[in-house]
Write a structure and sequence with these properties.
single chain; alpha/beta; Four Helix Bundle (Hemerythrin (Met), subunit A); 5-stranded parallel sheet; two-stranded antiparallel sheet; 9 strands; about 40% helix
Length: about 250
């Protein structure tokens, strides 16, 4: 089960993980767009990836106000899968999804659409300040903070995310040259536990830092663990495998 904090009630709701029927998710982008919209997109994408990671199915709709920057290009730059439906209102999204909305992902404090106060869990994402360009370094910076916490995307934060991403990709490329080994089961279980606890992606990143730092683990095992977890993170951690290095 996925346990998600409902922004309306403050209580924890258990979600059926989309095995019997697709989990219908709506991401409501704020009218002002910008990094707040990026955070909504990434949160909804990680939720969808988590459901699929655990064997479920997802139908994702994105509600994009007509005067906001187009979401499709931003989503691609952030490594998010394209939504099944791109709608101008929650009502339109619900019609396209042809079923009960299970989760709405919204910017905290925003009222995007009156329909947003209807059924389903509301996943609030906290405020974001800064003017970053969409990219996987921004995605990593967003994943490194609890989704409800305020986040200032100052240059040092983005530089640290970019450096971490480079470091991990280089390590994964080196590990890929060694014989494959089974994943680190205890660490993968910690990842699953973190994801089921309100999508705690910060804890997931911490697990990968631990795996990367454990030199006693076989390189092939570390590679398989990183590649497996990246199915949720969407950071293209295997992108440099097979590339030419100095």
């Amino acid at each position: 089960m996925l346990r998600i904090e409902d922004g309306r009630t403050g209580g924890t709701v258990e979600l059926e993980p989309g095995r019997r029927a697709p989990l219908r998710v709506v991401a409501c982008l704020p009218p002002r767009g910008g990094p707040q919209a990026a955070r909504v997109i990434v949160t909804a994408d990680v939720l969808a990836r988590t459901v699929e990671f655990t064997g479920g199915q997802v139908l994702l709709a994105v509600v994009e106000p007509t005067h906001a920057p187009h979401a499709a290009g931003v989503s691609r730059a952030l490594g998010a899968a394209p939504p099944a439906i791109l709608a101008a209102s929650v009502a339109e999204a619900q019609e396209g999804l042809a079923g009960r909305i299970a989760v709405r992902v919204v910017a905290a404090g925003d009222t995007v659409d009156p329909g947003d106060e209807g059924e389903g869990v509301r996943m609030d994402v906290g405020p974001v300040t800064g003017e970053p360009s969409p990219g996987l370094d921004l995605r990593l910076a967003l994943l490194g903070r609890g989704r409800r916490e305020p986040l200032e995307l100052a240059p040092p934060t983005l530089d640290a995310a970019a450096a971490r991403l480079t470091r991990w990709r280089q390590a994964v490329a080196l590990w890929a040259e060694e014989p494959s080994k089974p994943m680190c089961a205890p660490h993968v279980e910690r990842v699953r536990t973190a994801l089921s606890s309100d999508l705690d992606t910060r804890a997931v990143l911490d697990v990968l830092d631990v795996v990367a730092g454990q030199a006693e683990l076989p390189p092939g095992s570390r590679f398989e663990t990183f590649a497996h977890v990246d199915r949720v993170l969407g950071l293209e951690l295997t992108r440099e495998v097979g590339g030419v290095r100095p």
